[in-house]
Amino acid sequence: MATKTAEGAETAGTGSGTEARKDDETTTAGPGAVAETEQAEQAEQTGEAGPETAGDEDGESGDAEGAGEAEADGPGGKVPSGVGQGAGAVVSAALGLVSLTGGWIGTVASAREQLIGQLRTSTSASVGTQLKEVYGDAWHTTALWAGLFALAALITAVVVLVRPAFGAPGRPQAAWIRSVAWAGLSLGVIGLLLAVLKYSDALLAVPSAG
Questions:
Q1: How far apart are CA 69 and CA 72, in angstroms?
Q2: CA angle 68, 69, 71 (to 5 degrees)
Q3: Rounded to the nearest 10 degrees, what angle do helices 137-166 and 175-199 cross at?
Q4: How far is CA 206 from CA 35, 134, 145, 147, 199, in A?
Q5: Interatomic CA distance for residues 13 and 31, integer angstroms
Q6: Please, where are the H alpha helices in 102-174?
Q7: Looking at per-residue confidence, does 21 or 54 come out higher?
Q8: Which are the contacts of 206, defined by CB distance < 8 A and separation ≥ 6?
């Protein structure tokens, strides 16, 4: 009986010691250990959610940048300024005026043809022949150059007027560009008509000797 009582006491003593050690460890750890454990768990959760959130934000930023580039590169991204069309309209009007006045090239060509006629015509030639070779050919040369300028004005004006239909159909052409282009077209038509009449001797023909 004494032996069993001693063993029970030893067993009880051992169990009490173990529980006491556990209580001591818990007491020693205290609230600080619990706080550290919670912080570690929060860090793990943040680390798992962080890359996904960053990935979502990067994806949204990439989509926004892609949409911006698509809008910039789209049909409305690059709008034509109309500088070329305006320049073409002004050139057509200038060519139309040159066709009416003859221009420096026409004057030089006419003087050259007149000089050639004087060199080729002998002093013993008839008056009709001298008029034709000296004045008639020079007059026709002036009319020819005027017609070339008028034709160039016509072509340039037509190209400017039809350009929006092929380049940028949705963008209206400036009013002043259309006005100047129509002026160049009108001057070109008038200049071409006068050049044809002068070259065919229907207008201001060289007088005859008889």
A1: 5
A2: 65
A3: 150
A4: 117, 10, 18, 19, 11
A5: 29
A6: 103-120, 127-130, 137-166
A7: 21
A8: 131, 132, 135, 136, 139
Task: Report whether 164 contacts 68 (CB < 8 A).
Answer: no
**Residue 131 CB-half CA count within 13 A:** 9
* Tokens read off for 34: 């619990």
HEC string of 11-41 equals HHHHHHHHHHHHHHHHHHHHHHHHHHHHHHH
3-state secondary structure of 74: coil
In this structure, the dihedral spanned by the alpha carbons of residues 122, 128, 129 and 135, taken in order and rounded to 10 degrees, is 100
- Joined tokens for residue 100: 């009416």
Average pLDDT of the segment spanning 139-156: 94
The 10s digit of each residue's pLDDT in 190-202 is 999 999 999 998 8
